[in-house]
Amino acid sequence: MRQLGHAHPLKMVKHEQAADQVPLLVQRVEAIGADVKDIKTELRVVREHDAELHLVDQRLRAMESWQGEARPQLTNNIHVLMGERGARQHRNLSPAAAAEVHES
Question: What average pLDDT does this structure show over 60-89?
Answer without folding.
Answer: 83
